[in-house]
């Protein structure tokens, strides 16, 4: 099998699993318990908090562990800027290319303001000037897109917005572990993370929150996570997230130069094929992501055909009531639906090899493109 779907999820790193296992076997204490097993679990969570904070150049006290990127993204909608009396009066704005955990949450908040992107998938400076005139309180723009890999200039956008007292959240779920991410340097007030995208366990993530912000909890109960997220912590997964973060930090350079070399090789080979288009090719992109389409061939067909040959990729389309819909991300970039429907996403990891890329290319060529 060749696994080229690492933006969907990654294989757990053996070292992460080794760090997690004791917390499922012998060190099973509840972190809220006062006895020694409880204290061991509590201290392991605090170590993980330090490791996750270090990965994104933040303070450990700014990290709230959640059940994943989706929960972190939902939680941001509970944020209330300190100058507003309640979050009922908060005006949110989100970009047109957000993950569904942002776009669907925004719908619940009756968030009407959607920030457009250009045909390269990027938000332009001028668009931000226009957004400021609409006076939103909280703006959410992802750091890197899960389908195209396009990286937004978040530091510049945040600087523009912060001058007007606007709070900025960024979904860094796909960026972290692939490019350097510094909470401090980005200048945002909130940032979402997910463990299973960086070789950790599924069902675990975090929201990093600036101290100046008050957050209403989504979950009430025992007051865990400093009263911001009640519920007994998923200790093993959090410990694994910490280990995954530590490895992502120490191995970032080696991992990203390997995946970038593979991506470039893949793109050189793909661009020799006349019917292939690489979407957002000229934009700053994650080193691991290539979204491409073959003219006249449905992405879903390619996905299923590759699957039969033991190759795992994603198509850009989403299944809705039995029919495939073209990717909203590509539509937001102004790509015509029939072209968007051809999209296939390859997302690499440092575990992929040159031989796998060559095999993938040979199979794509066999489609007569
Ligand atoms: N944000 C982005 C950009 C994602 O790609 C994903 C998952 O694919 C999420 C959020 C959701 O993260 P999780 O799977 O941890 O809920």
Provide an overview of this structure.
By secondary structure, the chain is an alpha/beta fold. It folds into two domains: 2-9 and 252-356, Aspartate Aminotransferase, domain 1 (Alpha-Beta Complex), CATH 3.90.1150.10; 14-250, Aspartate Aminotransferase, domain 2 (3-Layer(aba) Sandwich), CATH 3.40.640.10. It is 38% helix and 16% strand. It has 15 helices and 17 strands. The strands form five sheets. It has a seven-stranded mixed sheet, with helices on both faces. The chain has a four-stranded antiparallel sheet with strand order 11-12-17-14, covered by helices on one side. Strands 1-13 form a two-stranded parallel ribbon. α1 (14-20) runs antiparallel to α10 (235-250), α3 packs parallel to α10 (235-250) and α11 (252-271) packs parallel to α15 (354-365). The longest helix is centred in the first third of the chain and has 20 residues, at 36-55. The chain starts with a strand and ends with a helix. The structure holds pyridoxal-5'-phosphate. Pyridoxal-5'-phosphate (PLP) is lined by residues 68-70, 73, 99, 101, 142, 146, 171, 173-174, 194, 196, 205.
């Amino acid at each position: 099998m060749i696994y080229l779907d690492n933006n969907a999820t990654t294989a757990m790193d053996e070292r992460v699993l080794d760090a997690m296992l004791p917390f499922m076997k012998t060190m099973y204490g509840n972190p809220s318990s006062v006895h020694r097993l409880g204290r061991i679990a509590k201290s392991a969570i605090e170590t993980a908090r330090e490791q996750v904070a270090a990965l994104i150049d933040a303070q450990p006290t700014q990290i709230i562990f959640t059940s994943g990127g989706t929960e972190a993204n939902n939680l941001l909608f509970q944020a209330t800027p300190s100058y507003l009396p309640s979050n009922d009066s908060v005006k949110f704005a989100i970009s047109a290319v957000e993950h569904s955990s942002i776009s669907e949450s925004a719908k619940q908040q009756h968030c009407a303001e959607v920030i457009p992107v250009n045909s390269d998938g990027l938000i332009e400076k001028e668009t931000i000037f226009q957004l400021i005139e609409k006076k939103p309180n909280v703006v959410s723009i992802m750091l890197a897109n899960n389908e195209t890999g396009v990286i937004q200039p978040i530091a510049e956008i945040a600087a523009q917005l912060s001058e007007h007292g606007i709070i900025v959240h960024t979904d860094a779920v796909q960026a972290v572990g692939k490019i350097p991410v510094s909470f401090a340097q980005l200048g945002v007030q909130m940032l979402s993370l997910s463990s299973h995208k960086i070789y950790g366990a599924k069902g675990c993530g975090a929201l990093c929150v600036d101290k100046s912000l008050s957050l209403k909890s989504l979950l009430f109960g025992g007051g865990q996570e400093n009263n911001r997220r009640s519920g007994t912590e998923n200790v093993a997964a959090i410990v694994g997230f910490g280990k995954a973060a530590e490895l992502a930090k120490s191995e970032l350079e080696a991992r990203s130069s390997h995946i970038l070399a593979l991506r470039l090789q893949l793109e050189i080979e793909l661009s020799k094929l006349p019917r292939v288009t690489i979407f957002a090719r000229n934009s700053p992109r994650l080193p691991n992501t290539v979204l491409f389409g073959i003219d006249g061939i449905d992405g879903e067909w390619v996905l299923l055909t590759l699957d039969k040959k033991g190759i795992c990729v994603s198509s850009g389309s989403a299944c809705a009531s039995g029919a495939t819909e073209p990717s909203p991300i590509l539509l937001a970039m102004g790509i015509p639906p029939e072209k968007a429907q051809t999209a296939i996403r390859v997302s690499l990891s440092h575990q992929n090899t040159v031989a796998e890329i060559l095999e993938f290319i040979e199979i794509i060529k066999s489609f007569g493109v």
